[in-house]
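Handout, page 2. Input:
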Amino acid sequence: MLGPVILAASRSDRMRRLISAAPVTKQVVDRFIPGESVDDVVPIIEELTGRGLELTMDVVGEDITTPEQAAAARDAYLTLVDRLRDLGLGERVEMSVKLSMFGQALDGGHELALANVRPVVEAAAAIGTTVTLDAEDHTTLDSMFAIHEELRKDFPQTGCVIQAYLFRTEADARRLAGAGSRVRLVKGAYKEPAEVAYQQKHEIDKAYVRVLRVLMEGEGYPMVGSHDPRLISIAQELARQAGRKLDEYEFQMLYGIRGDEHLRLAAEGHRMRVYTAYGTDWYGYFMRRLAEKPANLRFFARSLVSKG
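Output:
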């Protein structure tokens, strides 16, 4: 299985240097990350929303080592909010944030991350949109869920992400599936030990369906994060069984993957949101995209052969 190997490489400084230096890398990265600045991605935002899609925007960068970097990450999101306000797209574009980027791993990181993310959530609410807290490795989740709970006291529309491959997730889903909640379910893209997570694809897929059923039968708003055609069909059937209308759940997929499917689902009347990342610190995000799906790795390998 190459996925765990790639995830290990995502934390290797040596591999970061090698891959970043490869001449073809930028061309391949552009498939998943369409720009480094807000100005770069504004045309993408306008194009995708103009085609009936919604977006969630992620400013990439998780290797935060100082409070100053965490504050800069906060400010990057506030700049994004300003541009969304100017574009009049607050109701079509939300934001996804990783609390590690806001200083969660630093000394006093829980309080620091909460202090940094709150202004972003406040600014998002002011333009009619919201923020979803991305899940990271399992050691960070208790802090993430506590921050999510705190933010929802004032901003109940704040969303969070749960990962199907973790043993704890079905219980988390039952706790989170109450009225007004917004929960994105993904398979999971971090290297986790066998003590806390399923390791085999078929086990993860079965867990995904179990958790998705909990969310669909709950009172919240499920966000189905998957590119898997079979899981998408199952999600539609579970929504039908739960009596959900098309605007009572949504699909989410990554920018650069299955773009035709984005448009097909939107044309059928589904809410379809494209997870779109941008920024200069792209390495960790890029490597997880390669690890998630063998086709992504093959795409990268072919590019290295043909362009390198």
